[in-house]
Amino acid sequence: MLCSPMGMTELEKICKKLILFGGKGGVGKTTCAAAAALHFAEIGRETLIISSDPTPSLSDVFGKQVGPVERPIEPFRKLHALEISSDLVLQRWKERYGQEVYEVISSFVPVEYDIVDYVGGAPGIEEEYMLGFILDIVKSGRYDSVVWDTAPAGHTLNLLGMPQRFLSHLEAAVKVYTKVYASLHKLRLALGLSEGKRSALDIINGWKALAKEVMEFITDSSSTEFIITMIPEALGIEVTKRILATLNDFGIKVNNIIINNVITEVDCKLLQARRKMQMEYINRIRSMLDQTTSITIVPMFSYEIRGIDALRQVAGILFTDT
Ligand SMILES: Nc1ncnc2c1ncn2[C@@H]1O[C@H](COP(=O)(O)OP(=O)(O)OP(=O)(O)O)[C@@H](O)[C@H]1O
Ligand SMILES: [Mg+2]
C-alpha cells in the first residue's frame, strides 16, 4: 500500500474543536469536509459543518436544504450545517461591533449611527470578521467539532492573514488616537461635551485582544486542525506547496493531507496512463513532506459523491484502519 489511511491515532488527533478543509478549487474539499462531519456526528460528537464558499454546495452534497441558519441535517441528531454569506457575516459584525464602532468614531467627530453601515461596507471588514464569527460559534460550546469547508485556497489563506493585518490597522488607530486625544480632550472641555461611557482607546484595545485571541486559536494545534485536500496533478502539487508554506508562516503545522481522485482500479489503457502519472505525483508529494504528515488516499469513485450513503463511503476511507 502506498499510503495509509488516517488510522485511529490520527482520528483521535483530528477530533478537535475546529477542523478546516482547505485546498485548490474543485479538488474535493466539500466532499471530504461533509464526510468528516458525518463521521464525527455518527460517533456521537455534536457537529456543525460550515461552508464559507461564496458558491456553497452543502445542500447539494447532503441532499438536504442548508442555509444561513444553523440547522440539523435530518435524520441525524448531532449533525448540523450552516452556509455563511457575506451578508450574514456583516449582519453579525454590526450586531456585535456596531455600537463600539459608533462610539469610537463619534468620540472624534459628531456622526449619525448610519456611519456603522458605511464602515461595514469598507473592503475587508467582512473578511476581518469571518474568523471571529466562526470562533464565536466554536466558543459557544454548542458543538464538539466545527468542520469548516473553506472557499478555494487563495481566499482562505487571505482570511488567515486577516487578524494580523487587523492588528496592525489597530496599532495605527491607537497611534492616531493617542496623538489626537490630548487636543480632543481640550476641545471637549471647551465645548462642555462629556467623555462618553468608555474611552475609544479601551474599545480599540478590546478589538486588539479579540484579534489576538483569533490568531492564537487558529494556530493552537490542540484545538484547530488544517487538512489539505488535493489531487495528484502538477497544479495540485504547486498549490499545496504554496498552502503549506503560507500556513507554516502563520505557525500552522499540517498533519493530514488527503489526496483525492486517485485511480485505484485500472481496466483500460487510458486509466493505466493516468494512474502512472498520478503515482509519480503522489511520490513527489511524499518526498516533499516530513514523516509526521500523514497522507490519505481517496480513490476516484465511478460516480459523483452525493447523499449520505456515498459520504459514508468516503468517511469509511478517511477514518478507518482497514
Ligand atoms: N473521490 C471522488 N470520486 C469521484 N468524484 C468525486 C470525488 N471527490 C469529489 N468528487 C466530485 O467532484 C466534484 C467536486 O468535489 P467538491 O465539490 O467536493 O470539490 P471542492 O474542492 O469543494 O470544490 P469547490 O472548490 O468548487 O468548492 C463533485 O461533483 C464531487 O462529487
Ligand atoms: Mg466546495
Structure description:
- The chain is an alpha/beta fold and 322 residues long.
- The chain contains 12 helices and 8 strands.
- Strands 3-4-2-5-1-6-7-8 form an 8-stranded mixed beta sheet, sandwiched between helices.
- It is elongated.
- The N terminus is likely disordered.
- Adenosine-5'-triphosphate binds next to α2 and β7.
- The site of adenosine-5'-triphosphate has 17 residues, from α2 and β7.
Report mean pLDDT, rounded to a whole number: 84
- Cα end-to-end separation: 11 Å
Class from helix and strand fractions: alpha/beta
Give the overall form: elongated
* Strand neighbour order, sheet with most strands: 3-4-2-5-1-6-7-8
Number of separate strands:
8
Number of continuous helical runs: 12
In helices, the fraction of residues equals 40-55%
CATH superfamily: P-loop containing nucleotide triphosphate hydrolases
Number of domains: 1
Q: Bound compounds, please?
A: adenosine-5'-triphosphate, magnesium ion
Low-confidence stretches: 1-5
Radius of gyration: 23 Å
CATH topology: the name is Rossmann fold
Largest sheet: 8 strands, mixed
The level-1 CATH class? Alpha Beta
**How are helices and strands ordered from N to C?**
HEHEHEEHHHEHHHEHEHEH
Strand content: 5-15%
Which architecture per CATH? 3-Layer(aba) Sandwich
Provide a brief overview of the structure.
By secondary structure, the chain is an alpha/beta fold. The protein has 12 helices and 8 strands. It has one domain: P-loop containing nucleotide triphosphate hydrolases (Rossmann fold, 3-Layer(aba) Sandwich), CATH 3.40.50.
